[in-house]
Amino acid sequence: MRLISCHIENFGKLKDFTYYFEDGLSVLFAENGWGKSTFAAFLKVMFYGFDGDNRRSEGGSERLRYRPWSGGVYGGSVTWSRGEKTYRMLRTFGARRKEDTFALYDEETGLPSGDFSENTGEELFGIDRDSFRRTVFWSQGDHDTFATTSIQAKIGGLPAQQDDFPAYDDAVKRLRREMERLRPDRASGLIRKKEDRLSVLEADESRLPLLEKQLEECNANEQALAAELEGIRSRRQRYALSASAAPAVQPSTDHEGQGLLEEAERKLAMLLETDRSIQRRGQKERQEYFRVKEELRREILDEQEGQEKMASALRTGAVLSFVLAVIFLILCLSGTLSSSMYVLSVLLMAAGGSLFWLSGKIRGLEPESEEILSLRGEKDWYNNSLRRLSRKLEKNRKLLREQRAVCETLRRRLDKTAAVQGAAVSSEVPGQISPEVSGILSKYDRQEEDCRLRLQEVRSQSAELGDMIRDCRSSASLIPGLRDEIDTLREQYDTCVVTLSYLEEARNSFTSRYMNPFLRSFSRYYSMLTGESADAARTDADFSIAIMEEGLPRDPSLMSEGTRDLISLCRRMAMIDAMYPEEKPFLVLDDPFSNLDDERVKGGLRFLHSASLEYQILYLTCHKSRF
User: Which CATH number fits domain 2-151+577-626: 1.10.10.10, 3.90.870.40, 3.40.50.360, 3.40.50.300?
Assistant: First the structure.
């Protein structure tokens, strides 16, 4: 295509300005501040529209930055030709995009043309705005360039409307966002957060046996203290009744009842000891049960991990089969490979499907190991033993309740007998409590208060342990679901990593065939600008450039600003050569040699005149030494 002329009604500081383009090199010389960069921006906006329409500040929005300084119609026209046709494109711009207008006319007939839409730049050049800015359009102060997916698609000869590369770019962005969200190696990653939560829950679960043991000990202490408190109160009551009788009249003693009570209390003590013995054995077996259960869980996880690795390998093979099949299909459709490779593509897809099916069926195919079977048997044994102990404990506690009832009945019998005798004695001889009796009663009172306080403390501790055990059990109930969730998230993360790897590999495979022509073109422009050989230059599938020094690649970003600009310009030109092997676009170069020394500026001018034999170039500069 070729630019013929343009007219600016109002754009930034430019007003009622007309410019006619030369066929080869058009040089616009003007002092700083005249509006050269504004003129360059006008051409870009006429073909691609404004960038940064969602931004509100002038620094971020081109629409705000280039509003007419003096008011009036915001916009202008560009006349250009392609093939045998000449077009005149008119645009006006409002405060918002919906207020913009676009019109295209056939210059020969003067009639409206539908050959291009308001997306003229993409339809004409086959690349998006960002790719245009990084190749054809060199704006002052923005010399960075890299091979966007739109540029790679153009270099690969794919039509602009084909969705493969835009879909690839979108897929890569989505995959990277998902990987960033899941990242297991970063505290903000979801997997890391879930694993930290799992560690807390597992710590609670590991405390559970110890807390249960402590609670059982507290319960046993509570029972013992309750029995001790009951005994202290009973002995005090009997002593008080017997001591209230006058010395001259001693109450008789219920020897039979006292003997029965002592025998009953011995049986109660034996039952209490049996209860504690059963609890100790149960605690020991419960610890063994949890130990075996944990070992079994680890063995099962290890076995599942091995199966999952096999399944993952199968899925990876399936993904590779699908990727290779898609690449072969694309190459077959583009005519690069013979149609016979279509059969291989179908076979690869079938193989990929089979591998996916097999990866889903891998669990359950292998029998459990002898270690797992042994641990399962040991776990079942402890589980059954704990049930038997539970039944035995329940039976013993039933006997305990019955024996306590017997003791209570006997104590009431003795207390009643003592009360009757004491009342009879006190009615005959009203006695007085001696200091010795008062001291013994005070001793009983202190013992009772001490025992009561200890019992209260143990009950408080039991309630606290009960709350902690409930929390730990709640935590333990969440662990299996959380582990499954982490496994799922890790599988998603691994799938993202593998998929991204294969996508990048497929793209690199697609673009690598154009590396040598690109490097030859880069070397030609480099030699033209510097007068030196570019044998030390290397490129890759991203069309990046590195300069070899002492056997190692050196990144141009570490070089001087002038050298960076020089390499960037050569790289742009090499990409443009690869993108447009036939009909060439116009080039806009806004002072590209401002950072070059005098010697390299001479090479730059040679480059301009040589490149203008193939391309129509608009060259903007503010210094006479650079044209």
Answer: 3.40.50.300
